[in-house]
Structure formats: structure tokens, C-alpha cells
Write a structure and sequence with these properties.
Elements: H1 3-7, E1 14-15, H2 19-25, H3 31-52, E2 70-74, E3 84-88, H4 97-117, E4 129-133, E5 142-144, E6 149-151, H5 166-180, H6 188-210, E7 220-221, E8 237-238, E9 247-248, E10 252-253, H7 269-272, H8 278-291, H9 299-308, H10 318-333, H11 338-349
Helix pairs in contact: 2-3, 4-5, 4-6, 5-6, 6-8, 8-11, 9-10, 10-11
């Protein structure tokens, strides 16, 4: 990787909780909820600025390892990163369950990418996987900062500890995979594709770790993350049925569309990256369900080929991505086969056929 290629990679802040949810909570009549949301939004904004100024160091050319190199840190409820080292690769389990969940989630992500796609860590060159737990107090998010994972503990009311969902961990780390491959710009449709990639592979990581087939999977992102203060909600997003993950007095109504008929044009959330990602998310669900079996084996392979094949432009639109997935399916599995037909049917169903 040459220096000019690295300089074009500008990591941006990618938190798993969409800003439209935090914006709504920030207007809550309960002062504690509103304060936690405002604090999270302010910290997220500061990370967004810093990450845009970051640049990656080229990965070394040595043969990448077949095992992860994980390090977990504890921020001790401060915001200085990475914090105090509390567990290294191969180290004993901690008495802190957040540390152990983060460690296991990094390992599950590494394993899915290696075993299913032959990818050696986030950069395909054995990048060490670092994570910090207990970031700030009442911080309602988790994010990839361009070089490591960071987890808040949640407020215990609307959100629980962000290490509880392995798909959330996989989601955020996949922002790193995208950063090192297609580097999709985080705005509009390319930004929604960036978010969708993270949902797709986050879901696959959960399915792989549970040894689930497409029919068994719940296709939810962040299941188990919502706290007791949420009355009507099961997750942050649903790939199977976008727009149905929550409908709550506090969180509001899940705004994700499943098809282009519901595409949301907005200037907020970088042009709706967390909202319109429901469309390519649903297309992946349809492909995986049509093909059956383990979703990472064929549907996931097509998505991975498209993401890493060198033809997906940073400014790619939904139609570009749809076309490239069809071409990737034909290249790997042949024209007219089950995979080709499933892709055509799915993209047509969501309005991009």
C-alpha cells in the first residue's frame, strides 16, 4: 500500500446508535435521559471532527497471522483513549464482563472474516484489534474511531452496555474493513452503503458465532441492547423488516424504508446514512433467505467480493452497488444460476432492479 493511497483514507466517526434517536431522546421531559443524550451527541460530534483529520499508517508487508492480536483497555469512565490495559491476547479472563465480551466480540469478528473470506483482520494484513470499554459515563454509543473500538456503558435506562451485542461489535469493526477497502464516503447513498455493509457483516458475525442459518437468524441489529426504559422496541434496526425495530414513546418510530419507494431525502445524519441503509440491508436479507443455508457462504461472499473487489467507487450509489453485486455473483457462481437469480429478484423487489 503506497502513501498516496493511505492519505486518501479519511476515517469518520461511525456510531451504532443513529443521531435521530439521540436527537429525540435529547428532547425528553426527563432531565436524566435528555442530559445523557446531549452528552453523547456532543462527544460524537467531537470524535467526528478528529477522525476526519486522521490518517492511517500503511500496514507492514509481513505474512499476516492466523490468530487475532487483541488488547482491551478500560477508560475508567473518562474520555481519554485508549485507557488502562486490562487484558491482552491469550490473557486470563477478567472479572469485568464488559472486558470479556469485548474480547470475545473482537475474536468472533476476526474469525468470521478469516474463516469465511480468508481476510486477515480488518486491514487484511493482521491489524491488531484494540478496544476500550467503560468510555465516559452514561455514554449511549459504541464506535470505531479509525483505529480502535470504543464502548460506552449506556445509561442503564434506554441503553445497556454496548458490549452485549456481538453484531454491534462486528458492525463497528466492519467500518474498518470498509475503510481499508472501498472506503465508501460517509454521505448520502455511499454513506448508507457504508452503514449497510456494517449491518450485513455484523449480522453475519452473530449468525456465524451462533451457527445459524438464514432461516433461524433474527436479522436484528442491536437485539438485547435496549434497556428497561424502552417499552416497544426489540433492536436498533431490522434487516428483515426495516421500519419495525422500534415504535416507542421515547425513541420514536423506526424510520428505515425497505424499498426505494420510501427513500428519505434529508440533510440530517449525513444525508440519512442510518435511515436509507434499510434498503440495501433488506436486499441482502432477501438474497440470503432466497438462497437459504448459511448466509455468509453465498450471499455474504457476493457482498464481500463486491466490497473488496476494487470496482466499488467511494461515491457509489445504490444502483452501482446493485449492478456490481449481480456481476460478482455471475463471476463467482455463473450466469443464470440460483445466486444470479436471487440477486436480480432482490434488487427488483427493493426498487433497484
Amino acid at each position: 500500500m503506497d502513501a498516496s493511497h493511505v492519505s486518501r483514507r479519511r476515517p469518520v466517526f461511525c456510531g451504532v446508535v443513529p443521531p435521530h434517536i439521540l436527537d429525540r431522546i435529547a428532547r425528553s421531559e426527563l432531565p436524566e435521559r435528555a442530559a445523557a443524550a446531549r452528552n453523547t451527541l456532543e462527544l460524537d460530534a467531537s470524535h467526528r471532527v478528529r477522525r476526519q483529520l486522521a490518517a492511517l499508517v500503511p500496514a507492514p508487508g509481513a505474512t499476516p497471522p492466523e490468530t487475532p492480536e487483541r488488547t482491551i483497555y478500560d477508560a475508567q469512565h473518562r474520555t481519554r483513549l485508549p485507557g488502562k490495559k486490562v487484558r491482552g491476547e491469550g490473557g486470563d479472563a477478567s472479572k469485568d464482563v464488559s472486558v470479556n465480551r469485548a474480547y470475545a466480540g473482537l475474536g468472533a469478528t476476526f474469525e468470521l472474516y478469516l474463516k469465511a473470506f480468508g481476510r486477515h483482520s480488518i486491514d487484511d494484513a493482521g491489524l491488531p484489534l484494540d478496544a476500550t470499554v467503560h468510555y465516559d459515563r452514561l455514554y449511549n454509543n459504541a464506535f470505531w474511531d479509525g483505529s480502535q473500538m470504543v464502548f460506552g456503558d449506556g445509561d442503564g435506562d434506554l441503553f445497556l452496555d454496548f458490549t452485549v451485542s456481538v453484531d454491534v461489535i462486528g458492525h463497528e469493526l466492519t467500518h474498518g474493513v470498509t475503510q481499508y477497502s472501498a472506503n465508501l464516503e460517509y454521505h448520502g447513498q455511499s454513506g448508507a452503503l457504508n452503514e449497510s455493509m456494517s449491518d450485513v457483516f455484523g449480522s453475519l458475525i452473530k449468525q456465524y458465532s451462533l451457527d445459524q442459518g438464514a432461516a433461524e437468524a433474527d436479522w436484528l441489529i442491536g437485539a438485547g441492547l435496549l434497556g428497561p426504559g424502552v417499552d416497544r422496541g426489540q433492536a436498533l434496526r431490522s434487516m428483515k423488516a426495516p421500519g419495525t425495530a422500534y415504535e416507542d414513546d421515547v425513541l420514536g418510530k423506526d424510520p428505515q424504508p425497505a424499498t426505494m419507494d420510501g427513500y428519505v431525502r434529508t440533510t440530517r445524519d449525513n444525508g440519512g446514512v442510518h435511515i436509507n441503509s434499510g434498503i440495501p440491508n433488506h436486499a441482502f436479507y432477501l438474497v440470503a433467505s432466497e438462497l437459504g443455508g448459511k448466509a455468509w457462504e453465498r450471499a455474504g461472499q457476493v457482498w464481500y467480493d463486491t466490497l473488496t473487489g476494487g470496482r466499488l467507487a467511494p461515491t457509489a450509489q445504490f444502483a452501482d452497488f446493485a449492478r456490481l453485486t449481480v456481476e460478482a455473483a455471475v463471476a463467482r457462481y455463473g450466469e443464470g444460476g440460483a445466486e444470479h437469480q436471487a440477486l436480480q429478484k432482490a434488487w427488483s423487489t427493493v426498487g433497484l432492479g
